[in-house]
Amino acid sequence: MVQGSWPTYGLALREVRCSSIVHILDTNMNLTAESHRIPLSDGNSIPLLGLGTYGDPRTTPKGTAHDCVKLAIDVGYRHFDGALVYFNEHEVGQAIREKIADGTVRREDIFYCGKLWNTFHPPELVRPALERTLKALKLDYVDLYIIELPMAFKPGNAFYPKDQDGNYIYHHTDLCATWEALEACKDAGLVKSLGVSNFNRRQLELLLNKPGLKHKPVSNQVECHPYFTQPKLLEYCRQHDIVIVGYCPIGSSRDASWVNLKCPPLLDDEVLVSIGKKYNKSSAQVALRFNIQRGVVVIPKSFNPERIKHNFQDQFAMGDPTREQKPPDNIAPGIPVTHKPLHHDKVAIHGEIFDFSLTEEEMKAIEALNKNIRFVELLMWSDHPEYPFHDEY
């Protein structure tokens, strides 16, 4: 393999590179749902597949997040993506603690990502915001803490501050000052890794070029799926050892209040459906496999217990960690993979995404689906000076 070449697609990957570390994949390695992680540039690692925990607080019944996270841990999930503004971190934390208490997992087995909301960008508010998350979770640290959006809002009790005319009230905070406050949180042991979300290249460069940078962002969580493949941002992040974490990896709900309905339903795409039939997979699994082969961490969400169960129990025996598994082929460089399956709140996903590989031709066919169109445009904040989506990438 040529060092630094992307993508690998049809190559049976034995040697992969992440920064200066060369990882050798044993093609006979046993894979378990607890252990498929990829390295981060700070020496930590992140599970390649996670469970998104967002549920509309107006419609999601109380206790849903708690019950589904407990079930998810039982069936193999170890990576959970949450946020203060999801209003359910207390439930997620309770579920994690209960599964630690009953011996199912240890704290170090769990990877939790929390987020700094827009109203907490001033440096003096960063640590208190993180401490609110830790207090809700009742955990001593989070594994990854990210700036949820580069757009600061007016600090205060309202997460979505508006004036008397109903307009959002913005706030100017130097992103580098916010980052320095996050670095202090890492130095204090409150968080293991630091990252960002919805940052464009310019905003990433602002942090990467910051004088006196102590801890670089290890990840950038952005929308990423076959209709919005983010090739330029993905390549830029690869060059700087920043892992892309893809949200909406299998599309989004059709909620007109925040979703761009001009983007057609992803999972109905004939190319994805056709490829899925070849492998006896759903179009959702094909979409997820596509991103994973590109080295993108995926965090689809589900609060449907039966679908969460079904994903893990169809073909992967969680109760038998010694069961031999075929290692995942065709993972992009930097991915010394181990293993773990998936879910979605609208589609039951049958089987796994780690027991098949897309060919080079199939990867190219899916790449050709790219429409450069977002499900999540956040147009209500498009007049913010730091709105990230005006730039090409």
UniProtKB/TrEMBL annotation:
What the entry lists under PROSITE patterns is as follows: ALDOKETO_REDUCTASE_1, ALDOKETO_REDUCTASE_2
One GO BP annotation of this record: bile acid biosynthetic process
Recorded hits in InterPro entries, A to Z, give: AKR (IPR020471), AKR1D1 (IPR044483), Aldo/ket_reductase_CS (IPR018170), NAD(P)_OxRdtase_dom_sf (IPR036812), NADP_OxRdtase_dom (IPR023210)
Which residues does the UniProt record annotate as the domain NADP-dependent oxidoreductase? 49-313
Q: Which CDD domains match?
A: AKR_AKR1D1-3 (cd19109)
Annotated GO molecular function terms are: Delta4-3-oxosteroid 5beta-reductase activity
Similarity field: Belongs to the aldo/keto reductase family.
Q: What is this protein called?
A: NADP-dependent oxidoreductase domain-containing protein
Q: Which organism is it from?
A: Oreochromis aureus
